[in-house]
Every structure is written in structure tokens, then in C-alpha cells.
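Hi V.,

You were right to ask for the full record rather than a summary. Here it is.
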Amino acid sequence: MTQSYPSDKHLTLVAILHIVYHSLALLVGIVIFALLSTIGCLAEDPQAAQILVLVGTCLAVFFILLSVPGIIGGIGLLKRKEWARIMTIVVGALGLMDVPMGTALGVYTFWALMQDDAVALCRANTD
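Predicted structure:
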């Protein structure tokens, strides 16, 4: 029988929120890339097309680089892995600059993942 911790529900909620939030950010990056690339292909000016495709690619890569760690951390946190708790804290700290949603998620992430029982719950699954 496993021991139940009060922070168990908060860990699950933080994990789901990070997965959803960063999946949406990933989707935004893909949509921006598709939109700018399409506009670039429809443009009459080849130089404008190159610039739009370049900007779309750069923005997509930026969103992917910011989103993937949050998704991976959320999935690992659902499995109660210690590395995921640390990774999600770092991602939450970076998200503090994204006012207002990233700030709220970052503060909640800190609060939930710094609890003693949350630390104990993740450390119990260090296999």
C-alpha cells in the first residue's frame, strides 16, 4: 500500500497544467510558422517571402525550445520523478516572465513543488 500525501493532487494538477500550457505554446509556434510561411509563399516579392519564412522558422524554433521542457517535465511529474520536479521548477521560474498566465503557473508551481511532502513523494520514486 502506498502512502498518500496531501500534495499528491497538487503535483498532478501542476503536471497537467504544464503539459496543457506548454502544448498550447507549442501549437502557437506551429501556427505562426504555418501562417508566416503561407503568407511568404503567397507574396509576390521573393525577398519578402524569404524573410517571412525565416521569421516564421525562428519563432517556431523559439516556441518549441520553450515548450518541450515543460511538456517533458509535466509528463515526468505525473510519474513522480525527482528530475521532473526539479525541471518543472526551472520551467516555472522561466515562465514567471510570461505575465499573467506564466506568472500564475510559476507561482503555483513553486508553492506545490517546494512542499516537504511533494519532495518526499518525488524522492520515493527515484528508480
